[in-house]
Amino acid sequence: MSGARAIAQQIREFIIENFLYGQQRELKDDDSFLGEGIVDSTGVLQLVTFLEETYGITVDDEDLTPENLDSIGSVTAYVCRKTNVAAGTVSMDHEGVGRQA
Amino acid sequence: MSSTCSVSPDILQLDAPRETERILAGIRDLVFHQLKRKGAVIGVSGGIDSTVVAYLCAQALGKERVVVLFTPEADSSPDSLRLGRMVADALGVRSFVEDISPILKGARAYERRDAAIRSVVPEYAEGCKSKIVLPNLIDADRYAIFSIVVQSPAGETRKVRLSLDAYLGIVAATNCKQRARKVIEYYYADLYQYAVAGTPNRLEYDQGFFVKNGDGAADFKPIAHLYKSQVYQLAAYLGVPEEIQRRPSTTDTYSLEQSQEEFYFAIPLAKMDLCLYGKNNNIAAADLVPAAGLDAKQVQRVYEMIDAKRAVARYLRSAPLLIEEVKGI
């Protein structure tokens, strides 16, 4: 699995585990976390904390935008940019879509 | 969106005498007939909302059937008690001062809060003051994430973005304040067979600006349907002391003074009021521009913020959920 795909998979697992409570549901790479009611404002803080601790990055205030943090695809692309991982394979097939608790 | 014309800035103007009569009749019905209680207990903070509720209850039920409580703690502004007493004196109602600091110390609320603050500001020590704040994002398409502002005894301030654990730790500990107040309010409610009046305005009730089972707990909430600016109109009509009408909205929860705007609403309350009205009445963002003094993009951003906060507030307003309806009660 490429670096970008591994990151996307980790983020998917984090979202399913922490916000969907392991429920089986389809979660597309471009589903809006806020728009779909998956993540609320405290959830954004939890996501930011996860990204900083997992990838050793600092999420600056100006990076706290939906453009960077509102879907699996956007978060993956953001982490790739911050960690200098090639993001060419961010657009994934739906490996890992949904998951049985 | 159905509107096609601009909204007047006066859209929230009330017929204050008529609305007052309606609320007075409502309070009498709720307290005496539906709740079957003999009067009302109101925690008065010296802010506009609790003061207006105290005035309304005193008029509706009679001053002899109203108890006003002041519940200061270590971080309270002395103004809150002074202005609260002004309200009780003006109304001629019974009042009691109950310092809740010992309850909070017993619950280790200050200690737990300080430990959470120190996890992000290690130099935070006794004598420091603090508050948590949100950025003003009216011009930025960004998520609002809380920071803590710490002021040293020498007056130096430092602002640090909160981690999840620090944020939750500070809020969980601080929420003990509103819950301790409610313990005392229900003591007096039990003692006199009174009902507890809640004091949220519409903005707070809708957007979840209250602590569940803290200030969110009450037997009736007589101004929960009124926008903040309408509460001010009733205050003027009821003759609330000028100083209270002019007092800026504050949470009076943190040791550094914290406005409601920087804690919760991110924009001035008058603009927030109009945006909530616009949202509730399906008014297109562009049509709210002249009244709100915001541009269409800003109004749209506030509309989205209202939706996001409403989603969170559903849990706060939710009564305990049951697996099935319990019949026969």
List descriptors:
heterodimer, A: 101 residues, mainly alpha, Non-ribosomal Peptide Synthetase Peptidyl Carrier Protein, Chain A, disordered C terminus, B: 329 residues, alpha/beta, 4-stranded parallel sheet, 3-stranded antiparallel sheet, 13 helices, globular
Fold and architecture overview:
The complex is a heterodimer of chains A (101) and B (329). Chain A is an all-alpha fold and 101 residues long. Chain A has one domain: ACP-like (Non-ribosomal Peptide Synthetase Peptidyl Carrier Protein, Chain A), CATH 1.10.1200. Chain A is 47% helix and 0% strand. Chain A contains 4 helices and no strands. Chain A has helices at 3-18, 41-55, 66-69, 72-83. Mean pLDDT of chain A is 82; it is low at 89-101. Chain B has 329 residues and is an alpha/beta fold. Among the domains of chain B are: 109-167, no CATH class; 267-318. In chain B, β2 (66-70), α3 (78-91) and β3 (94-97) form a beta-alpha-beta unit. The longest helix of chain B has 29 residues, at 164-192. Chain B is globular and about 50 Å long. Classes of the chains: A mainly alpha (101), B alpha/beta (329). Chains A and B meet through α2 and α3 of A and α6 and α13 of B.
What is this structure, in a nutshell?
The complex is a heterodimer of chains A (about 100) and B (about 325). With about 100 residues, chain A is mainly α.
Question: What is the general shape of chain A?
Answer: globular
Helix content of chain B: 40-55%
**Silhouette of chain B:** globular
Distance between the termini of chain A: 23 Å
Largest interface: A-B, 17 and 17 residues
Reading the helices and strands of chain B in chain order gives HEHEHEHHEEEHEHHHHHHH
Strand order of the largest sheet of chain B: 3-2-1-7
Which fold does the CATH topology of chain A refer to?
Answer: Non-ribosomal Peptide Synthetase Peptidyl Carrier Protein, Chain A
Mean pLDDT of chain B: 92
List low-confidence stretches of chain A.
Answer: 89-101
Total separate domains of chain A:
1
The proportion of residues in beta strands of chain B is 5-15%
Distance between the termini of chain B: 43 Å
Provide the β-strand percentage band of chain A. under 5%
Which blocks of ≥5 consecutive residues of chain B have pLDDT under 50?
none
Number of strands of chain B: 7
Please count the beta strands of chain A (DSSP E, at least 2 residues each). 0
What is the CATH homologous superfamily assignment of chain A? ACP-like
Task: Give the class of chain B from helix and strand content and strand pairing.
Answer: alpha/beta
